[in-house]
Amino acid sequence: MSIIAHLSDPHFDGSERALARSRRTMAYLRGCDVDVILVTGDLTDHGDVKEYEQVKAELVADVPVLLLPGNHDDRAAYRKVLLGDDGTAPINQLRRAGGALFALCDSTIPGKHEGLLAPETLDWLRGVLAEAEEPVFVCLHHHPIRVNNPLLDSIRLRNPDELAAVVSASSTVAAVLCGHAHAAAAATFAGLPLVAAPGIFSTTRLPWTTTDELAWSNTFDRDDVPGLVFHVLEDGQLTSHFRSVPS
């Protein structure tokens, strides 16, 4: 049995608020019996080196902590601080933890908020899946389906069909895991489980829960508690448990 703690969008921005919410989440997880912690993007809010230094200092545990970039991240600063290298190529990484493989895909478009899996990223993922023998979690920042918030759906992944073709051709993919929506959501994608983790920094409001006309200025609820997902993979079955982080 493998237990994956899945969180997303901490948005370290140098503020005490963002720092406190991530510290609260990580303190809770350090007391849990999990095999791996996955953070699906928007590690920082502005992509600054100082923000990545906070990420490096705070997103740590006695189990592997897997990170990937989101639309608020900067590839060059991310590489410099978190990977110790340079360049602006897509940050795609393969990690093994808890008896599973994690294909950490870079779905960012530098300078834009919508997502795209570049041809080199899709080719890399095909190669990973072709050689994989363990269950594989395909992880990216941008959601490849509609999450029913028009604002967030306007900046979702732009080439979901290409991703669907790649993952559906493999028998080893256990699920597709993403972030970006700042809202817990579960669906199917290419016949596979798809789970979006809620946001650590904030939660998006759903149109049918309010009479307000949602805009970028009011769609994010900064008062809601941080949330996360525990994925349990056992005997080929995936079960996902959604939890708020206790205070």
Question: Can you tag this structure with a few keywords?
Answer:
alpha/beta, Purple Acid Phosphatase, chain A, domain 2, six-stranded mixed beta sheet, five-stranded mixed beta sheet, 6 helices, 13 strands, 26% strand, globular
Layout of secondary structure:
Layout: E1 2-7, H1 16-30, E2 36-40, H2 49-58, E3 65-68, H3 75-83, E4 93-97, E5 100-104, H4 119-131, E6 136-139, H5 150-153, H6 160-168, E7 173-178, E8 185-189, E9 192-196, E10 203-204, E11 220-221, E12 227-234, E13 237-244
Parallel strand pairs: 1-2, 2-3, 5-6, 6-7, 7-9
Antiparallel strand pairs: 1-12, 4-5, 8-9, 10-11, 12-13
Your description of this structure?
24% of the residues lie in helices and 26% in strands. It is an alpha/beta fold and 247 residues long. Helix 4 (119-131) packs parallel to helix 6 (160-168). Strands 4-5-6-7-9-8 form a 6-stranded mixed sheet. Strands 3-2-1-12-13 form a 5-stranded mixed sheet, with no helix packed on it. It has 6 helices and 13 strands. The chain has one domain (2-244): 4-Layer Sandwich (Purple Acid Phosphatase, chain A, domain 2), CATH 3.60.21.10. The protein has helices at 16-30, 49-58, 75-83, 119-131, 150-153, 160-168, and strands at residues 2-7, 36-40, 65-68, 93-97, 100-104, 136-139, 173-178, 185-189, 192-196, 203-204, 220-221, 227-234, 237-244. Helix 4 (119-131) links the parallel strand 5 and strand 6. The chain is globular and about 45 Å long. The mean pLDDT is 97.
